[in-house]
Amino acid sequence: MRQTVSIIGAPMDYGADRRGVDMGPSAIRYAGLADGLSRAGVDPVDSGDLSIPRAEERDPDVEQPSRGTAKFLREVEDVCTRLADRVETALEDDAFPLVLGGDHSVAIGSMQGASRDADLGAVWFDAHADLNTPETSPSGNVHGMPLAAILGRGVFEELEWASAPRVQAESIAYVGLRSIDERERDLLRDSEMTAFTMADIDDRGMTSVVEDALDVATNTTDGVHISLDLDWLDPRTAPGVGTPVRGGVTYREAHAALETVSRRHETDGILRSMDVVEVNPILDEGNETATLAAELAASTFGKRIL
Ligand SMILES: NC(=[NH2+])NCCC[C@H](N)C(=O)O
Ligand SMILES: [Mn+2]
Ligand SMILES: [Mn+2]
């Protein structure tokens, strides 16, 4: 039986400084997401977009956390709470939730929803660690904080909508890390998470690194969440992102990574949920980055050349 994939759009840009990621879901759909998924052998069902008020209608400073700075935190809470419900409903209907961002703070909602009924591991494909708390963040942008939120670090400990008790640091692996803030480095060193940097990919090759990341994410969990931030790729390959960092993953490496995920899913049924985030069509060139996002989602479900 073909697996149903429920496409859930979360056009949210509250978490990032550069406006435009709210157009990500449209651009990824336009790039042929549904067709690509069908060809990969799953049944895509489009569940539409969450309705999200524009940032201009909102005041970034309302209700700051008790410590530190987190812009639009109230709005992020509202969206992530609704998103978590949508993800949970998809899983109850035996569909696989595929969330289209939006900035990376949507992962708070996806992972919340996906872990309400299961112990969840995660592989975080990203240039960034996204482990800042409102206390440590240099920018106050929540898209640099989703993992800290999920793990209940810093002031997030007080925010029940954010932390996901069934996600443990020891079941999270980064792949492709290359930009970490000063204070984030300390948080990462003190945590049980596993980090594979670009240097590890250089040394060992993508496939073997992703195999290890999947071992981390499947160990003692019921399923794996894949979080794919398009700035994981090199900006020359994926220019449509708000926080580009040179020295990223190539087109071939990216496909190899997601194909490795797909092979493991075929044998062991490991996948539970996924988000594809940070596509910014305003900064993109000819919808290249959105096209890549759609292709990589298809690779995750087994798109094959032959
Ligand atoms: N999901 C992302 N693109 N995150 C970028 C985070 C950049 C920086 N570390 C910050 O906290 O502001
Ligand atoms: Mn990033
Ligand atoms: Mn990110």
Key features of this structure:
single chain; 306 residues; alpha/beta; Arginase, Chain A; eight-stranded parallel beta sheet; 8 strands; 35% helix; globular; binds arginine; binds manganese (II) ion
Characterization of this structure:
This protein has helices at residues 24-30, 33-40, 73-92, 106-114, 146-150, 182-189, 198-204, 206-218, 251-268, 288-300; strands at residues 4-10, 43-49, 95-101, 120-125, 167-177, 194-197, 223-229, 271-277. It has 306 residues and is an alpha/beta fold. It has a single domain (4-300), classed as Arginase, Chain A, CATH 3.40.800. Strands 2-1-3-8-7-4-5-6 form an eight-stranded parallel sheet, with helices on both faces. Strand 4, helix 5 and strand 5 (167-177) form a beta-alpha-beta unit. Helix 9 packs parallel to helix 10 (288-300). It is globular, with a radius of gyration of 17 Å. The two termini are 21 Å apart. The relative contact order is 0.18. One manganese (II) ion binds at residues 126-128, 229, 231, 243. One manganese (II) ion binds at residues 104, 126, 128, 130, 229.
